[in-house]
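Sanity check

After download, print the first record. It should look like this:
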Amino acid sequence: MTPTTGPTATGSARPRFGWPVYAWGLWDWGSAAFNAVITTFVFSVYITSDSFGSGASSKLGWALATAGVLVALFAPITGQRADRSGRRGLWLAVNTGLVVLASAGLFFVEPNEESLWLGLVLLAAGNVFFEFASVNYNAMLNEISTPSTVGRVSGLGWGLGYIGGIVLLLLVYFGLINPEVGIFGITDENAMDVRVTMLICAAWTLVFSLPVLITLRDEKVQRETKGPRVGIIASYGQLFGKVADLWRTDRNTAYFLISSAVFRDGLAGVFTFGGVLAAGTFGFSDGGVIIFGVAANLVAGVATILFGRLDDVLGPKRVIIISLSSMLVAGTCVFLFHDGGKVVFWVFGLTLSIFVGPAQSASRTFLARLIPEGEEGEVFGLYATTGRAVSFMAPAAWSLAILLGATLTGVTNNDDAEHWGILGILVVVGAGLLLLLPVKSGVNQKSALAAHAPPE
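Expected structure tokens:
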């Protein structure tokens, strides 16, 4: 496929937002419970606290790296099989439900070393099922957007996710974490405040996932027109055939899938380990991590919505390059000035937060503009294959950088070299940026978005 030379070649039809767009975006709002509260700012900080023994931070990295390997093994055919069966909504519901169950299961992780692996396994499982759900969720983007609104629709979804994180973090902080006695008389005894938070997260995800599951239901006629069912081995065979075909006939899209795989994993690493870094290196209390999380989600949500408009005007490639370059500068400053205390992390940590969301959203719209009509599910399945299949890179780079830092500085406790982990994340982000530079952007004239462009 050959992209057009300009990001707005398909025209500038007046954007139309309706309930399907907002219902779709609310899934991002609901998923903030897992991304912001569990993976980033509350449970990851809790599971790496002193209660779980020395080296818990490094073990967290390896657990998430293992989750990435499982995604690599099983995500490749998730989108393809859902697309073939015409049951994209069903599998979005199933995998979202498994995320809810994993979230609720974290309630049983008590503050002792014996519970460490239960927490790590449930957290890793939640990440796996979340990625499976995201395959089907992303494939719905072209169903609810137009050529001139795809950037804003995608940005709205990401922005709602960050804002949802703000709301939930405030509820958790003022209702459970900060007060000596929280709602329903809950205290921090036996970490009950954190553990009840996990139940709230499960309920939050469930409630705000229902609108998209009810609104964008699988149509019976759509299911009946799909191809015959095939086995798992045959599905992999078809997938490998698709990859080979892309490499032969559409090298540009293949290059984008590879580059985005790398930099998106780096972006995920920033938020996954941000709370851990704030607490372990910069001395933030549990409540301080929550407050920083609120601020980070606020700037990320606003920036993502605003950059969504720039995406429609400038094109997604420019948005991604600006975002990744800015993150490399801010992340380097976090490492160089880590002895400066909390102010350093407030300034440069928030700067990192500004650019994560726009890069993620623009990556999604970059691919949406390239997908031929009728192949959305399969190609977004490849997006997961090449993207989330390498989701072990950032956690592994984080852990390896800590080990390297401990060796070079001669410290006996790896936790004392935790700030080196940010360099591992930056290596992944920088590699993705370099791989992106030669990729051409634009709207494929065979895409569903081009088909919906206004006549000239």
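If your output differs, re-run the checksum step. Summary of this record's structure: Residues 4-15 have pLDDT under 50 and may be disordered.
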